[in-house]
Each structure stands twice: as C-alpha cells, then as structure tokens.
Design brief:
With 344 residues, the protein is mainly α. Helix content is 65%, strand content 4%. It has a 3-stranded mixed β-sheet with strand order 1-3-2, with helices on both faces. A hairpin with a 3-residue loop joins β2 and β3.
Length: 344
C-alpha cells in the first residue's frame, strides 16, 4: 500500500526505540478535503442517565450551599445566593480550554506530547476525526507518562493516551483506541461525568464528613443503638403517616442502589464508545487491543505479563462485576463481532 513520507515511520520507530508499526490505511492525508458533520456532539442515554443519577445529590448540594449562604449573609451581609451562584458558574469551566488544561496537567497528571510523539499522534488523529466527520482541532491530545496500556476522554476536549500505548501499539491499533475515546466525547460522556462530579461535590463532602464523625465514635453499641432507634422511628412513622413515610424510608435503599446504577451506565458508555470506533472501521484493531489486554500483555509484545502492562491478573467476583465501570473483555469483543463479519 503506497504511503506518503509522513506515514512511513519504520525508520523513526527504530531510532526512538519503539516497535510501533504504521499499518493504518490513511484516507485523509494532509491536503485532502474533510467533510464535517453538522452535529458533532450529542448527549446519549448513558450521559443523560448519569446526569439523572446525580440529581438527588445535586439538590442536596444546592440546599447545603444555600444554607451556608444564609450564615454568610448573617455574618458579613453577603447575598445568601452568592456561594451557590459561584458554584454553579464554576461548573461551566468544564468547556473552558485554559481550565481544561489545568485540569489535565495538575489533576489528571497528563503532559503535552513531545515532538516525536506529536509527529506520531497527529496523522493518526487526523485520520480518526476525518472518518468521524469531526473537527480534530477542537480537541487537545495529551500523554500520560505511565507504562500501562490505556487512554482517556475527559472534560469537554481532553483526549489522553499513555506513553506505553503510544510506543507499542501499531498506528491502526492506536487509531482504534483514539476512536473509542472520541466516541466518549461524541456521546457527551466526558463532560457529563465531570459536571456530575463537580455538582455533587458538596454532597459527597458532607457524606464523608458525616461518615468520619460516625467512625470516630468507634462504639459498636452506640451504632447498634442508633440503627435500632432509626428502625423504631421508621416503624412509628409508617403507622402514623402511612405511604409518605414508606417512601421516605425507602430513600436509603435508593441511595444504596445508586453506585450499581452508575456502574451499569458507565459500562453502557464503554460499549457505545466501542461501537463508535467500530462504525469508523476500527473493529478488528480494537479487538486486537482488547484481546491483548485480556491476556495481560500488549499487542506488539504478546509475551509481556500483567506486571509489565499494568493489568491485574485477579478475577473479580460477582459483586465486583456489578460495580465495575467497564464491561469484561469477552462482552466487548462479542459486541464487536457483527462489525468483524462485515469487514471480511
């Protein structure tokens, strides 16, 4: 297959110590015209479901900040709604590029790609975004300096890939991984996750503070007595107030099920991102990467074990499966089979 010089990387890979192979079929070389989709982003059911799950904690957070605002108003004559307004406005920084850069560097621990890494990433990213009909310049590519096979989509425009993946995946496999992360952005998974975390931060802080207070008591008898008293009060409430008390008493059960629902939506988002990459023609390459990750190695070095690739060899139990943020590899590969048959 003829390739222009920008895509012939065999000699460069030898000089930089990597063994990546440039086997990607480029359809959008520099100079070719790109056709962008009119709608490049959407909010799919996984993103909407995640936002919906955060609504109770968001309501609690808003109420807590308004209560704090009341205290601030009494002490310093500041409008009680000002802390809540600042908190709400700060959530919009998820789409602000400078704020995203700070988040990527100092929270996620990413770094800017080195020149040789940029030379490797740019043509692959152009091919992925060209096939998707997306403006690639809207996103910023980052590198995580870790020896693990992984990639990330965060906030509104962050696409990260590990140094290990960049150095050891072939160009086609790297394109499949980047197409998967682009699928997260196309479905709204990145910004909705970060927004949900920010807008539930006061509620989670209050929960952790309350848990710390309870744990500091360290008296099991007091804990059992509190549970018994709560059960007695709930029982009396059911007798006195009927269905309303039953709904109120069911609230703790709902809170207990939220982590399982959130994990299920996260797994759904991963499958949708896999299908996005497959729809762009990267199903075989993505399957290769998933198979290598399942074996605990990497595609270019099949002999590497779990320690080298950062994978854990332990098999999770049933409860861990329900709380897993990613589907198991067998499920993901099974969902890609229809695309593999179409490619043959």
């Amino acid at each position: 297959m003829p390739q222009h010089p920008e895509h012939q990387r065999a000699e460069q890979d030898r000089t930089t110590g990597t063994e990546a192979v440039d086997d990607l079929e480029y359809r959008h070389a520099p100079g070719t015209r790109l056709h962008f989709a009119a709608r490049q982003r959407r909010v799919d059911t996984a993103a909407l479901g995640g936002l919906a799950l955060h609504l109770p904690a968001f309501a609690f957070s808003l109420g807590a900040l308004l209560a704090v605002g009341r205290l601030v108003d009494l002490a310093w004559q500041i409008p009680y709604w000002l802390p809540a307004l600042i908190w709400l406005a700060c959530g919009l920084l998820v789409f602000h590029r400078p704020a995203e850069d700070l988040y990527a560097r100092y929270v996620l621990g990413f770094r800017y790609p080195l020149p040789r890494e940029r030379a490797r990433l740019d043509p692959v990213w152009r091919e992925v975004t060209g096939r998707a009909g997306v403006e690639g310049d809207r996103y910023r590519l980052w590198v995580e300096n870790t020896p693990n096979l992984n990639a990330y989509a965060a906030a509104g425009h962050i696409v990260g890939v590990t140094r290990f993946a960049l150095e050891n995946l072939s160009s086609a496999q790297l394109a499949a991984v980047l197409a998967h992360e682009l699928g997260h952005h196309a479905g709204g998974h990145g910004w909705s996750t970060l927004a949900g975390r920010w807008y539930t931060l006061p509620a989670r802080a209050a929960f952790r503070a309350g848990r710390a207070v309870l744990l500091s008591a360290g008296n099991r008898a007091v804990g059992l007595g509190s549970v018994s008293a709560a059960a007695l009060i709930a029982g009396c409430g059911v007798v006195l107030f009927g269905p309303a008390a039953i709904l109120l008493g069911a609230a703790p059960l709902v809170l207990l099920t939220l982590p399982y629902a959130a994990a299920a939506l996260s797994r759904r988002a991963e499958l949708r991102a896999d299908l996005h990459a497959a729809s762009l023609g990267f199903a075989p390459m993505l399957t290769e990467v998933l198979l290598a990750m399942e074996e605990g190695g990497d595609p270019s070095h099949p002999g590497l074990g779990p320690a080298a690739s950062g994978m854990s060899g332990a098999r999770p139990g049933p409860a861990a499966h329900l709380l897993a943020s990613h589907p198991d590899y067998a499920t993901r590969i099974h969902r890609l089979r229809p695309f593999l048959a179409a490619d043959r």
